[in-house]
Write a structure and sequence with these properties.
The chain is α+β, with helices and mostly antiparallel strands. The protein has one domain (11-170): Peptide deformylase (Peptide Deformylase, Alpha-Beta Complex). The protein is 24% helix and 29% strand. It has three helices and seven strands, in the order αβββββββαα. It has a five-stranded antiparallel beta sheet with strand order 1-2-3-6-7, with helices on both faces. It has a two-stranded antiparallel ribbon with strand order 4-5. Strand 4 (91-98) and strand 5 (101-111) form a beta hairpin. The longest helix is centred in the C-terminal third of the chain and has 15 residues, at 156-170. It is globular and about 45 Å long.
């Protein structure tokens, strides 16, 4: 089922999400719905707060980027209660967008390499290291779980430049090809 996306200005995007356990109701269905919603919206990552749930759950699927980046074709992941254990000193600047902030793309500095502890959809514990674009997507989605959005990380000058666009998102004046929460 395709769910509506909560956009910039929604209180749920600013809350620190709560960890969940294996008894969370209808978890498998929720994960499937998150993937459906993300694919329908042409996104590559989605965190639960973006669908109005303040829980520590994210999904990512980079298959859509396979034509330009074949190495990303098989990257599909579910992370429950993710926690970044280690982040490299080396950082990279790269362009990001967000389903919750439609129409805005800005450069954001992120750690090049991260190690993340998390549970998969079967509540099996993992500790994996991610680099480059995979690391960027995971950091972006974990930010959502911590009540942050990517525009928080842009320079004050750039934030001033996009202020009107952000206001238009809050007021519902930004068209999307996908369903948003009202």
């Amino acid at each position: 089922m395709i769910l509506p996306i909560y956009t910039y200005g929604s209180a749920v995007l600013r809350k620190v999400a709560t960890p969940i356990d294996k008894n969370y109701p209808n978890l498998k269905e929720l994960i499937e719905n998150m993937f459906d919603t993300m694919h329908n919206s042409e996104g590559v990552g989605l965190a639960a707060p973006q669908i109005g749930l303040s829980i520590r759950l994210l999904v990512a699927d980079l298959m859509a980027l396979k034509d330009d980046h074949p190495e990303l074709a098989d990257f599909k992941i579910v992370m429950i209660n993710p926690e970044i254990l280690q982040a490299s000193d080396e950082k990279e600047n790269g362009e990001e967008g967000c389903l919750s902030i439609p129409g805005i793309h800005e450069n954001v500095v992120r750690h090049k390499t991260i190690t993340v502890k998390y549970f998969d959809s079967n509540f099996i514990a993992h500790s994996d290291t991610f680099v480059d674009y995979k690391a960027r997507v995971i950091q972006h989605e974990i930010d959502h779980l911590d009540g942050n959005v990517f525009t928080d990380k842009v320079s004050p000058i750039r934030r001033q430049f996009i202020k009107t666009k952000l206001t238009n998102i809050i007021k519902g004046r930004t068209p999307t090809k996908y369903k948003i929460a009202k």
